[in-house]
Amino acid sequence: MSPISFSVARFAMGGIAMFLVYYYQCYRQNSFQFFGLIEKKDWGRLLLVSLIGATFAPWLGIEGLGLTHGARASLWLALGPALSTGFGYLLSTEEMGKYGYAGVILAGAGTLILAIDGLQPENAYWLGDLLLFTALALTVIELHLIKPLAQKYGSAFIVTLRTVIGGLFYLLIATPSLVDQPWFSLGFWTWVAILAGGGIGVGLGQWVKVRALHKLGPTQVVLYGNMVPVAALLIAWLSIGENPTALEILSAVFIVGGAILIQVIDERARRKRESTIDESYSSTTLGG
Q1: What's the DSSP call for residue 184?
Q2: How far is Cα 165 from Cα 162, in angstroms, rounded to an integer?
Q3: Least buried of 50, 61, 247, 280, by fewest C-beta within 10 Å?
Q4: Which domain holds residue 65?
């Protein structure tokens, strides 16, 4: 299949799955309302989130993947926590300590190494890398922008609406490719990838991710994406003999190491500081 045809097909299955989740939730609450809930002032943010997260991010991501390979694309995903922390710091939605700064610098170094590797004549991955990086940046921006909407209207409702709106634009972009695609010639496992991968990965996965924002915050949600690069590298190596270059391995160590510094070590240090401040405040209050 062409990359965009596969992506849109999975995205459509994800949209159907999300709509069913939302319908089930409304059925249990004996209430079903779709468009009327959004206040006029929130439509601009919703449209922006829909275009960023459900149109341009998957489109650029799948095109970038078509110009590189799966294991390499997963390394760009691992850069997510560093980007998320940077956006959160600029938007004043997240705090960052000294370990967080070190993690961002380490992940930045890994990104530079990966970019240099992509510029090598024998690889020529630079365009795919650029598209993947842009798609990742859009995904991270969406996570920060969608959080207030999910808190206000509910994650199932917002993700469903965002998927429907963004998916319609994505469908228009992909129409020429979809028309040319010989659908009846696709094999069994391709349909499994479309139906199950779309419904579970794109649909339920997005719902779970947005719900997790309430408890974890955007950066820690992105952090769990670091399981993807490790799995992708191992699967690609074991299944199709895809051997990563030395620079890709070094980049992976730097990027994943940076993510651990940002959201594991820095988070523990922050909690320890807060605990010390609370204990000091309690002692002072009791002493007074």
Answers
A1: G
A2: 5
A3: 280
A4: 3-287
